[in-house]
Amino acid sequence: MKSMTGYGRGEAQGCQYRVMVEMRSVNHRYLEISSRLPKQLNMLEEMLKKLVQAELHRGKVDIFLSLEQPGGKKVELTLDKELTIAYHNSLKQLAALTELPLTLSAQDFATLPGVLTPEALADDVEEIALLAAAALKEALTQLMQMRGREGQNLQNDIASRIARLRFLTEEINALAPQLLLEQQQKLRKRIEELLADISVDEARLANEVAYLADKADINEELTRLHSHCEQAEAAFALDEPVGRRLDFLLQEMNREINTVGSKSNSLNISNLVIEMKSELEKIREQVQNIE
User: Fold this and answer.
1) What per-residue confidence (pLDDT) applies to 189?
2) Which residues contact 259 (CB under 8 A, 6 or more apart)?
3) Is it the case that residue 195 has pLDDT exceeding 90?
4) Counting beta carbons within 10 angstroms of the beta carbon of residue 21, is it exposed (0 to 12), middle (13 to 18) or buried (19 or more)?
5) 69 - beta bridge partners?
6) Is the torsion defined by CA of 26, 32, 36, 41 positive or negative?
7) Best CA proximity match to 4, nearest among 45, 46, 62, 49
8) Which CATH number does 6-75+122-147 carry?
9) How far apart are CA 138 and CA 231, in angstroms?
10) pLDDT of 129-186, one tens digit each?
11) Residue among 224, 222, 217 nearest 252 (CA)
């Protein structure tokens, strides 16, 4: 079992460049990958995503890649002077037309498209791609290790809570026969009170009482609940993402627990149902972060 929360950092250095990759992941219904690369390396985005897709199945993953030259010198940026002047002239005309003040700073100009562009790296892309792949694999390994450790902690917690659910199910199961007998007695007494002055076929009365009591029987719900707990525990041993499987099982468990609660008129069983719902909600919170 693996968590969807993790962090990893990788670095690779060649003759001309050093590539650093940071990765973060959080819970998400599907696998969603976002990357932030230097503009001149956008062509590497698809390659990096495929490397991640080969290892991860769920989670929102952010990839941050930075590039440096030896000695820590950043890749140089080129200033397009003519484009900057053209922007400035156009903005002055816009200010005059709208009678609004022109309050742009140099930092504002730096954010305009095409004003500052990284130096061309076309001749070195192949080398950088190899470094980027190596750095990402190192970051991905660390991230997966962290997700694995978190997943083990989640598994331990969920396993203990499912064991508690199984115990509570057995407690209710032990009370169920007495509950059914009490239900039959109450129904019979109530019907006899309502029909005190009317002659009733005793055999038919017994059948009606049995039928109504059967509708309050919770044995089937308890059997299914026990089965769902077994399936959840079996999922721990699977070598595949189990988050969605567990989420589905929790929905089914909740359905059975609610039915048990609605059928039961026993205070003892109602208290046990409340405790089961509390445990189930805690499991649900944990499962939201499982891959």
Assistant:
1) 74
2) 218, 221
3) no
4) buried
5) 73
6) positive
7) 62
8) 3.30.230
9) 35
10) 999 999 999 999 999 999 999 999 999 999 999 999 999 999 998 888 777 677 667 7
11) 224
Residue with tokens 């007495």: 178
Q: What are phi and psi of 188, to 5 degrees?
A: -65, -45
Taking Cα atoms as reference points, which of 145, 152, 107, 110 lies closest to residue 1? 152
- Token output for 119: 């130096």
User: Both ends of the chain: CA-CA distance in Å?
Assistant: 7
Per-residue confidence (pLDDT) for residue 142, from 0 to 100: 97
**Cβ atoms of residues 162 and 283 within 8 Å:** yes
Composition of the chain by helix, strand, coil, percent to 5: 65, 15, 20
Q: Which pairing describes strands 18-26 and 77-79: parallel, antiparallel, or unpaired?
A: unpaired
Stretch(es) of the chain classified as CATH 3.30.230 = 6-75+122-147
DSSP state letters, 247-284: HHHHHHHHHHHHHHHHH---HHHHHHHHHHHHHHHHHH
- Neighbouring-strand partners of residue 36: 64
| Amino acid in the structure at residue 148 | G
Instruction: Measure CA 157 to chain center.
Output: 17
Residue 103 clears pLDDT 60, i.e. is over it: yes
Cβ partners under 8 Å of residue 124, min gap 6: 16, 17
Total residues found in the chain within this entry: 291
| Angstrom distance (rounded) from CA 207 to CA 214 | 10
Q: Is 59 left (phi over 0), alpha (psi -120 to 50) or beta?
A: left
Q: Read off the amino acid at residue 196.
A: A
User: How far is 77 from 12, CA to CA, in rounded Å?
Assistant: 22
pTM of the model: 0.71
Residue located via tokens 């995503």: 49
